[in-house]
Amino acid sequence: MSDASINTQVQTQEAGFGDYFALLKPRVMSLVVFTAMVGLLAAPVDVHPMVAFASILFIAVGGGASGALNMWFDSDIDAVMKRTQGRPIPAGKVTREEAFAIGITLSVFSCVMLALAANIFAGLLLAFTIFFYVVIYTMWLKRWTPQNIVIGGAAGAFPPMIGWAVATGGVSIESILMFTLTFMWTPPHFWALCLFMKSDYKDAGVPMLHVTNGRRSTRNHILVYTLLLAAVAIGMAFTGVGGPIYLTVALVLNGLFVAGAISIWRRDEETSEADGYKREKSFFALSLMYLFLHYGAILAEATLAPFGWGGW
C-alpha cells in the first residue's frame, strides 16, 4: 500500500486522546521507563527526587517520540501486517503528517529538557537513541538486512545507560553491561514473535531472519543468542549492580529461558503446527517477563543495599 493511499483513507471518526497516545507505543515506553529508572537508581550517585522524576518523564517522552516517528515511516508496512493494522495511521485515526509533527516536536522537547533537568551528556545520549531507532533501524536496517533486529536492538538497550548518565554524567562498566543485557535479549525475543506470526513480515516485505534464512535457521539463532544472553545475565551478578538476589533470579530465569530455546530448537517442521505455535508463543511470553524481572532484581539490590541486604 502506497503512502498516498494511506493518506487518503477517510478518518471514520475524530481522533481521541487514546489514538494519539497509541502513537507513542505505550507498551514499549513502559520498558523504556522501567529500565531507565533502574539505571538511574542503581547508579552510585544520589539524585534529587525532583530531578529523577523529571528525567524519567523526559526519557519517556523521548521514547514515545521514537514510537511516533516509527509509525510515521512504517505506516505502509503497518497497513499490511495483521498485528499492526489497528495502529492509528493504518486505521485512519491519525494522519502521517500529524504523527511526524508529534514525533519531531516531542523529540526536540525531550532531549532539550533532559539536558536542562539532568546534564548535557544525558540529553545527547537520548538524542542519539532516538536517531538510532528512527534513522538507523526504522529507515535503514529494518528494510535492508535480516540482521535488522540484532543491530537495531541497540536502540532499546540505551535507556538504562541514559538513566545511569542522568545520575553520573557518564557511562561505566555497569551501565554498559545493562545495555548488553537488553541488546542480547532483543533478537531471541523478536525472532520468537516472528515464528508464530507466520507470514506477517513476509507479506510486508520485511527481511526478517525467518523470511530470508528460513525457520530452521531462525531457531538455531534463537538458541545461540539465548546461550550468550544467559552468560551475560548470570555474569552480571558478580558486578557492582549484582548480588545474591540478582544471582538467584538470573539462575532461575535463564534456566527456564535456555530450556525454552532448546524446545524451540528441537522442533522441526514435522511437528504439529499447534504444538510448534505453543512452544514459540510460550517462549515469547517468557521473554516479556525475562527483562522486567532481571531489572527488577537489579533494582532490589540497589534498594536493599543501604540496609545491608543487597550486594555482595
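Second entry:
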Amino acid sequence: MRILFITSTRIGDAVLSTGVIDHLIRAHPDARFTIAVGRVAEGVFRRMPALDRLIPIEKKRFGLHWLGLWSKVAFARWDLVVDLRGSAIAWLLLARRRAVMRGGRRPGHRLLHIAQTLGLAPAPRPVAWFGPAEAARAEALLPAGAPVLALGPTANWVRKVWPADRFLTLARLLTEPGAPLEGARIAILGGPGAQERAMAEPVLNGLPGAIHLVGALDLPEAAAVLARCALFVGNDSGLMHLSAATGTPTLGLFGPTPASEYGPVGARAAAVLAEGPPGDAPMGALCATGVAKEATALLAGPAVVEAAL
C-alpha cells in the first residue's frame, strides 16, 4: 500500500499530524509512506517507521512549489493521498482514495480538524519518533541522575515570548528546596538561527549552570532529549508540541494565540493562559507563581487523555 501524506510547513502543525500517521501505520502494517512537508519540519518525520520517501517543500512565488511537488509524485499510483494543506494536488493524482482537509479557520483544536479529515474519532494523539543514535546522544547530554527541567523560551513570533525574568523565577520556584523538582538540572532548548539565540540569551545568562541546547539539536535529537526530561515549560512553539508528543509532562504558555486551537496534546500536557482576552492577551500578564502552581499540579496529577481538547 502506498500513501502520500502532505502536511504542514510549520513544526507544531507537523507534530500534530503525527497521530493520524501513527494510526495509519497501525491500521495498514504493509503501507509505505511518502511525506511532503515544509523543510523546517522535515525532521519530525525523519525517523518514522514505514517511511519510503521524504519530500521537503519550500514555498515559492505563484504557488510554484505545488508544481514542483506534483512533478515528484504524479507518475505513481497512490492507494491513499492525505492532504492537510487543502490544495488541489490530491485531485491531480492517480489515487484510489483521497482525504483533503478543508482550509480556513474553524472553531476547535487543530488536532480535531486533522483527525476529521480521515473521519477519526477520538483524534489520535501525536507521537514523536527518534532512533537509537538520537537516544544515545540524549543520554550523553542528560545522563541519569537528578531530574531535568526543560525550558523553551523561544517562539516564531516575539509576542508569544514570555519575559525572560519570569522563566528565571519559575526555574527557582520549581527547583528550590521543597519544590517538586528540588535539585533538578535545567536544560534550555531552542531552534537554530540568530533570532532563537537572541530570545534565549537572557535566560541562558540568568541560568549560567544550565545545559545550553539552543540550536544544538535537530528535531529527532530534540525529541529524544525531551523524552528524558521531568517537565517542559515553554512558549507556544513547535518544541512545546514535540515535548507533549514524547509523553513528557508539558506546560504550554499562551497569551496572544488561542490554546483552544493549539494547546499541547499528550499523556500529560496542559496550557496556562495569560489573563486577558482569549487569544489576545499579553504574555506579561502571566505570572511566574501562577505558572509554577500549574506545573506543580501537572506533575502531581495522573496521566490524562486529550488534555488540551
